[in-house]
Design goal:
Helices cover about 35% and strands about 15% of the residues. It is of the alpha+beta class. The chain folds into 4 domains: about 120 residues, no CATH class; about 170 residues, no CATH class; about 220 residues, no CATH class; about 170 residues, no CATH class. A hairpin with a 2-residue loop joins strand 4 and strand 5. About 5% of the residues have low confidence. It comes from Endocarpon pusillum (strain Z07020 / HMAS-L-300199) (Lichen-forming fungus). This is Heterokaryon incompatibility domain-containing protein.
Length: about 725
């Protein structure tokens, strides 16, 4: 049948196929007609962006009068798109001969052109909870004109604005009532109102309205809670997590989101989530910060998931259209941003992004080719990124290396998202502040036999003591601080160092960070090395923008450390005023730790007073806000990573799967140090000489090591840098 439906395409004319989606009642079988068009002729068509769904869960449809099986999700999308007249649409599953690898590779290479050439892109997120409450018998009565129901949201149009704000006002009015599902006549109507509420919130926020004004009663309002549940259900659509849909949403100028009965411009959905945090909570206005953090935690979690997803989507849109850079630089950026997205074919984690960089200078040589294995695609991509950037940034990933994978250890496995899909973005933004392995003239790396990375590096040390990986969800910081200090103490004690003042014991742990008499290791005190190591020597300025830590940050760290280890009495209600003469209400029964806080602040030259309750003075700083940046820096740097001490006394944080005996290297072209593992038992690989086999390693991961982050290890030891091989 495939030979009857799919005739060869003329690649010179950039031919592709489109379907004509024929009219039909809701319950009737979907029918389409397939035809060939040339993109060079600028045909008018729409494009569908959707998720295939389970390939084993299929339903029949008609294609050129032939019965074919398509996934349930595709059938549902086409059913939603049917109108009284035929619609010309490009749909990948139907318009590409999926069994022809050559055609598939060629069509993927022009995928961005296909979506850019569409007059509109319809993004099908799936059905909301409403449809499941409507019987098939009732659905069978829907005709082509009035059913199923559709609610259209618009923007930047006077009529659309008026209609939208009428719906928004209706949602505000419903909030003021205490009605639940029982008062709406049916569960269907209640869920329909909840969906409308979710879109009303998004539409309101997209216009820059204050987040606080979305809620007109209290956070327990039944319809408010239901609207946020609808928002969560919308976010749970797998569309947001697929790599192909990322590319499809980047290309078009006009895209419409379809979620059940509601349709809205994609920019309404994206803008609504991307403005909440920078504009209303952490931005200059901060008008909604108190409101946001007063919401129940489950509501905050929904909204933060929404903010995160839309912020990342909007940021990529911005970079795609607003600035130029070499193709490899943009490709590496996109690979980071899409790390948490999935693809049915692992090779598509690269192929799906290639069309988004073709308009940029310095073209990459990678082309979609489904005859290559996943390992070949990833290796070829990685070495091209290394050669063009002339650095080893690509080696910095959060993933745990699979020792039995056919993918070399130095090549990112882009099919694996790791524990945090956004971690790679943060790793690379943090690394910009370091330069552990300065790069001179010439290429930093070469590729041998299509899999061995040939680089230059210097072994600095070996790992001697490792603690368990840190886990934000379950760890008690005070316990882990004790464990890390114990690891340091164990190292220094065996070498005859006297650390009574540095580490007097568990009862006085805070003295480790506030005592004035600390031992020196090179040009760094142990005290200085420890507090900087625990935050990776970086503070977050704004989203993904960092700066090096300063002595003022040490003060904050000391207070954060005291609070985490000892716990300040009701510290959430403490406020700092930078004026000792300001009239305030003092704490009636000072806690000993408060006096310690005051002493530390005054020693640092600050004229702070600790007061409670909140005073009216404008100079007030909430104590928890004062130390919160340290907590963020601590977890951002170290969550899921292991504290370690080396044989020579260096301390740092590294990958969770590192072992004692692993080697600490600084690599030429690497902004940070790396943990390598020597390939044991000899190297059964004919490409190496006997002498080279002693210099073959696998990559464990990147690390922070205090004292060697700025080229100190290589400086003065350039003659010791030698060639090594990574498998």
């Amino acid at each position: 049948m495939a030979s009857q439906l799919y005739k060869p395409l003329d690649t010179e004319r950039r031919e592709t196929r489109v379907i004509s989606l024929l009219p039909g009642r809701w319950s009737e079988i979907v029918a389409c007609e397939l035809s060939v068009v040339s993109l060079d002729d600028k045909p008018e068509y729409e494009a569908l962006s959707y998720v295939w769904g389970d390939p084993e869960n299929t339903l029949p449809m008609l294609l050129n009068a032939h019965t074919v099986q398509v996934t349930v999700n595709l059938r549902n999308a086409l059913r939603r798109l049917r109108r009284r007249n035929a619609r010309i649409i490009w749909v990948d599953a139907l318009c590409i001969h999926q069994g022809d690898l050559h055609e598939r590779s060629q069509q993927v290479s022009i995928m961005t052109d296909i979506y850019k050439g569409a007059i509109a892109v319809q993004i099908y997120l799936g059905e909301s909870r409403v449809l499941d409450t409507i019987s098939e018998e009732e659905q069978a009565t829907w005709d082509l004109v009035d059913q199923p129901p559709r609610t259209i949201w618009g923007r930047f149009n006077e009529d659309a604005d008026a209609a939208d704000y009428a719906k928004i006002i209706a949602f505000h009015n419903i909030q003021k009532r205490a009605d639940g599902p029982a008062n709406f006549g049916s569960l269907t109507e209640w869920l329909r109102q909840a969906d409308l509420g979710a879109f009303a919130i998004m539409r309101y926020l997209a216009d820059g309205k204050c987040f606080t004004d979305c809620l007109r009663r209290d956070a327990g309002s039944p319809i408010w809670v239901a609207a946020l549940e609808s928002l969560k259900h919308l976010l749970d659509s797998p569309w947001w997590r697929r790599v192909w849909t990322f590319q499809e949403a980047m290309a078009p100028q006009l895209a419409t989101v379809i979620y059940g009965e509601n349709e809205a411009p994609l920019d309404v959905v994206e803008d609504s989530g991307s403005v909440i945090w920078p504009l209303h909570i952490e931005g200059p206005q901060r008008c909604c910060k108190e409101f946001f953090f007063s919401l129940p935690v489950e509501q905050r979690d929904i909204l933060m998931s929404f903010v995160t997803a839309m912020t990342d989507q909007e940021r990529c849109h911005h970079s795609h259209y607003m600035y130029e850079c070499p193709q490899t630089e943009r490709l590496q950026e996109l690979l980071q941003y899409t790390r948490g997205r999935v693809a049915s074919d692992a090779r598509d984690k690269v192929f799906a992004l290639l069309g988004l960089v073709r308009h940029l200078p310095d073209p990459v040589t990678i082309l979609p080719d489904y005859s290559m294995t996943t390992a070949q695609v990833y290796t070829r991509t990685a070495i091209e990124l290394i050669r063009h950037a002339n650095n080893l940034d690509i080696l910095m990933t959060y993933e745990i290396k699979d020792i039995v994978s056919p993918i070399p250890s130095w090549v990112p496995d882009w099919s694996s998202s790791g524990n945090d899909e956004r971690a790679d973005v943060w790793i690379h933004s943090r690394a910009l502040e370091f330069n552990a392995g300065p790069c001179g003239a010439g290429q930093v790396a070469d590729l041998r036999d299509d899999r061995v990375l040939v680089i230059n590096g210097l072994q600095v040390d070996a790992v001697s003591n490792i603690t368990a990986p840190l886990a934000k969800e379950s760890d008690v910081i005070s316990t882990r601080l004790h464990e890390w200090l114990s690891a340091l103490y164990g190292y220094y004690k065996t070498r005859g160092w006297h650390l009574d003042e540095f580490y007097p014991g568990a009862a006085s742990l805070t003295g480790a960070l506030t005592g004035r008499n600390s031992l020196s290791k090179g040009s760094h005190t142990v005290q200085d090395a420890l507090w900087r190591t625990l935050i990776g020597d970086l503070m977050l300025e704004r989203y993904s923008i960092h700066r090096r830590a300063t002595p003022n940050d040490e003060l904050r760290f000391s207070l954060w450390f005291k609070n985490e280890y000892s716990g300040l009495y009701d510290y959430e209600n403490f406020y700092l005023i930078n004026d000792v003469d300001a009239p305030t209400e003092s704490v009636e029964e000072p806690h000993p730790e408060i006096e310690s806080v005051l002493s530390t602040l005054r020693d640092a030259g600050h004229r702070f007073r600790v007061v409670m309750p909140r005073p009216p003075e404008p100079r007030v700083i909430k104590f928890s806000d004062y130390i919160a940046p340290i907590g963020r820096a601590f977890w951002e740097a170290n969550d899921g990573r292991s504290f370690f001490v080396t044989s020579r006394g260096y301390m740092g944080f590294g990958p969770r799967d590192m072992r004692e005996g692993d080697l600490l290297f600084v690599l030429v072209g690497g902004k940070v140090p790396f943990v390598l593992r020597q390939v044991s038992g000899g190297v059964e690989y004919e490409g190496f000489t006997e002498e080279e086999k002693a210099r073959v390693y696998s990559l464990v991961g990147y690390c922070y090591v205090h004292g060697i982050m700025d080229g100190e290890a290589i400086r003065g030891h350039e003659d010791e840098v030698g060639q090594i091989f990574l498998l």
